[in-house]
Amino acid sequence: MAFDKDNIIDQLKDASISDLNDLVKSIEDEFGVSAAAPVAAAGAAGGDEGTKDSYDVELTESGDQKVKAIKAVREITGLGLKDAKGLVDGVPSTIKEGVSEDEANKIKETLEAVGGVVTLK
Q: Which segments constitute the Large ribosomal subunit protein bL12 C-terminal domain (predicted)?
């Protein structure tokens, strides 16, 4: 089956972020793949076996209490409603970067309390 590659690219250029997010999720579900960038190689290349000084907090699943997750993200980041909703709807999303281990664990605990799944990187 042939498809018009140029037509598809033109449609993608005109699509909203929300539509593109839905498309990516549908493709991931349909084909059992993930659009997340692999990070294992970057970690292995560092060669530092000691403890980390800073962490990135990533919300990988928003859970079934989406409104509470949006409120928690707003409190954590200080973002407005629209931006916080965008992070929650667009999981996986980095909520905060370069935070201490204690702060990262507090953020993780807060988001997990409202049903979110969090990864510390």
A: 55-121
Class of domain 53-118: alpha beta
Amino acid at 60: T
pLDDT tens by residue, 31-82: 787 766 554 444 444 444 456 788 999 999 988 888 999 999 999 989 899 9
User: Closest Cα partner for 97 from 60, 43, 55?
Assistant: 55
Instruction: Output the CA torsion sign for 61, 64, 68, 74.
Output: positive
Segments in the chain forming alpha helices (H): 5-14, 17-31, 40-46, 66-77, 81-89, 101-113
- Cβ within 8 Å of residue 44, ≥6 positions away: none
Domain range summary for the chain, segments of one domain joined by +: 1-30, 53-118
pLDDT in tens, 100-118: 989 999 999 999 999 989 9
